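ligand=NAP
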Amino acid sequence: SDSRSAVARAGVILLAVKPQQIYAALGVLQSVLKKNQLIISIAAGIAMRSIETILARRHPIVRAMPNLPLTINEGITAWCANSAVGKAQKRIAQNFLSAGAMTCEVKESQLNAVTALSAVGQGVLYTFMALLLEEIVALRVPRAAADQLVRTTIAGAARLLQQSAHTARELAAHVATKGGITEAALKSVQRDHFNRLITHAVRAAYARAQELSR
Ligand SMILES: NC(=O)c1ccc[n+]([C@@H]2O[C@H](COP(=O)([O-])OP(=O)(O)OC[C@H]3O[C@@H](n4cnc5c(N)ncnc54)[C@H](OP(=O)(O)O)[C@@H]3O)[C@@H](O)[C@H]2O)c1
């Protein structure tokens, strides 16, 4: 098949199939895969050990967790390599993963936490923005203007944090003038246990990632 002949000529094989398709994909490749060909897997929740179990041998594997802003060159990809990956292969992997994303090498045991961060930092943030939009529209700002205001406020706040020497907590304190409007908002979310909401969301995402990678 096509993928078999492509693999026969490749130095690096990128596994970008859905997690549940990985066993079938590796099954097809197994007989043509040579033991020095680096596998880079982006399948969420599939442990490097599981890939080696399918191949029934030690094999150089890099596991990476990209995120969606990769599509606009603003991604961040956490990755790890097993001990079969040589120095040169590690450099190749790092170079490859740097296209469109910052990279961050972690231990495999930390990848599920990164996945939880990605889930909350994207899914929960977008939901927060959708709710914020509805509230601003309810205060009689036209939807188109409110939409632009929400997108740009959050994007600007995120960019400012990224370029700032201050922590997120320090920036929050900085914008919350005593007796002011931001302080009123912060006191309100504190009363409503914002921290508990975030703790629960992160733990739920982490638990699900653990479950899927079992
Ligand atoms: N989107 C993200 O931000 C993100 C972040 C981290 C990780 N991931 C991971 O990225 C992976 C891909 O996700 P996706 O949403 O892009 O999935 P997708 O759109 O379903 O793409 C999977 C691709 O794999 C191909 N494929 C399936 N079985 C194959 C086989 N046996 N041999 C060769 N190719 C095969 C499919 O081809 P056909 O269409 O011809 O079947 C399809 O092009 C997933 O494992 C996901 O967990 C995504």
